[in-house]
Amino acid sequence: MYWVRLFVFQGPKDWPCAVLVAASNVFLLTCFGLEKLLSQRTIAESVGRSLHILNLLVILCLPAGLVLYIHPNPVFSSVVLSMYTIIFLKLISYVTVNRWCREHSQSKKSLRKRQKSTSSLSSSGDLADTKYIEYPNNLNLKDFYYFMVAPTLCYELNFPRSARIRKRFLIKRLIEMVILSQVLLALVQQWMFPTINNSMKPFHESNYPSILERLLKLAIPNHILWLIFFYWFFHSCLNVVAELLMFGDREFYKDWWNAESITGFWSSWNIPVHKWARRHLYLPMVKSGYDKMTSSVVVFLVSAFFHEYLVSVPLRMFRVWAFMGMLGQVPFAILTSKYLNGHFSNMALWVSLIIGQPLAALMYVHDYYVINHLHADVMSTS
User: Fold this and answer.
1) Which of 52, 274, 280, 307 is catalytic?
2) Which of 23, 39, 84, 273 is 20 to 30 A from 255 (CA-CA)?
């Protein structure tokens, strides 16, 4: 029951978060309605763009403001904010792709003619039963909500689909989800929490040798948890969703553990986010005339913002450790690519993962402890 209370409800203060989960449909349907109006030329592109921007800003600001005002459970708040962040990224892709379709409507007409002429030639082949959706036929609620729950951040009019649901594969992934989630919770409760609690006194007293010892002691369970969580989420959970939806694109990660550069790691460990950033940030900036370095820095800036957004807002404290950690990847990547290569660069990557994450975790936990517990104790005694 402790973990149910931790991850779901602790009291009436958490009800607004539950309402936010249900209220997300308001923003989704607003975006869908605007796209229908734009496809019918009912409203101008400039008006639609302005309304889309307003809707996206509300998606980011409303849940954050509610969490900061109501002070609900930080874990549940982080889950809700993560959901709204995913919606935000998905809607940007949905709006952008539909705008591309409208801008290329003339070329699409000629493409339709070519598809009609070739479909009769392939009527006896493997693609006979394939139905290609064309704009604006994709603007329906079934297609829209399929994209919202699909394990991807990049919208397509025609997603790759598998022929059937593999029951044996699905059962294996479900068993992994259940077992690994219990392992994660057990390790957090039995290993992480005691180590973090024992680290508060050295941090408060600025006992640097003890801080270093606690940091190294925390690095092992933290890294094990991170690896288990990676497998649980990117392999087990996303494959379960993809299998149920018969979603064909299963490239959720690559062999990031063999990456010989920092940029290689960030482009292979989280493929859905990497594809979104490349498609909707990096490439548009490069095509607009910005150099590759500037475009890459902007990508890391956006990533740093969302990392800080998902940590600072639920904890209700702004320490920018996550922001600086992500932004620090840029000079770190430059230095490693200049002075290291091959296995040495891979070693530097693993050291940063093993040491950097527990350091950031300790700093956030320490600050949260000082603000919410130590300060409260001082106020109660005074």
Assistant:
1) 307
2) 84
